[in-house]
Amino acid sequence: MEQISFQRLFSGLSGQEQEILDLADGFAKKELYPLAQRMDDEEWWPPDVFKEIARNGYFGITVPEEYGGMGLDQMTVALVGQAFSRWNHALALSWGAHETLCMHNILRNANEAQKRKYLPALCKGTLVGALGLTEPGAGSDALGSMRTTARRDGDSYILNGNKMFITNGPIADVVLVYAKTDPAMGAHGISAFIVEKGMPGFSVAQKLKKMGFRGSPTGELVFDNCRVPAEQLVGEEGRGVKIVMSGLDIERALMGPLCLGVSERALALSLDYACTRKQFGRPIADFQLIQDKLARMYTWVESIRVFTYQTMRAASQIGHEDGGRGEIHKITAAAVMHAADAMHMVLDEAVQIHGGTGLMWESEINRLYRSIKLAEIGAGTTEVRKMIISGELLRG
Description:
Butyryl-Coa Dehydrogenase, subunit A, domain 1, 4-stranded mixed sheet, 3 domains, Butyryl-CoA Dehydrogenase, subunit A, domain 2, 15% strand, Butyryl-CoA Dehydrogenase, subunit A, domain 3, 4-stranded antiparallel sheet, single chain
């Protein structure tokens, strides 16, 4: 049996899924990888890259064809995210925020008029999407500590507050924003709105400078008496928590493919470096200590792959009322926690294999290493993931 066939069987991918992964990998290597260095060096955003991604069919993967999408499943989204992360993880992050946090949420929760207004343009990449949930004082307790408010005023809502650490915030044309329409109800008084760039009172306060994923624009958004037409309300007032929870586990699970892609690339770079770097007259790959590191890295990468794929298959089956609780809530939290932890170990050994080169800011392995912390903090910190897992275990 050919090696590639064995690899496909071991990974559990069907022939069609392997083809999707290979095609996305080829596209990312050719079109996205050449952008990665400048994006990291200058925190530069390629202005036409989303349109190019759309032209090649990598937006609207779960969106039905009638709205301009592909009508496929979350497993396909995971494979594309994995491939993109191998070659340009910063761009993969922005792609994911647009594809899943914004577009898929609109698909799952918006009314027909809203879907027809926004989904086709999001699929074409002519509109850039983002999700506005986290605030300066509301991170792990994003719902309970939310301070952004939305007050009904005739045919509009008036939004006031700030959103912090928003992926795609500085470049977004459309933001799915959560705000409290009934502050007295706490987390149960939250509603969701589609806010467009240019609506009065909506602005980007600052573009944030990050340690890792530097090419993915992250910012603080300000709503200062921002007037949003009432038809921009998604669902009903007070339904925001259900909207968050309906997509929470899918959004969390998709961090796994990003970790997988980065880890795969780190292993490939380390293998190449170990075979070409010579010390004491021999390639360092000849030394058992380096072989030990490579073997451990491979094992960690494969463990991410298996857990991630299984979780994404389960996440594809999540119904509107199933997210944020029970078995899937536990599994997605565990999968992302493992992916982040294992990626940390892979990258730590990768930098060690690269030695002094790994310490250099401009090296690719250094760029990958600086991505570790987002995976351990974003989409819920490792500590919160442990709380979710143990909570569901103890709940029985």
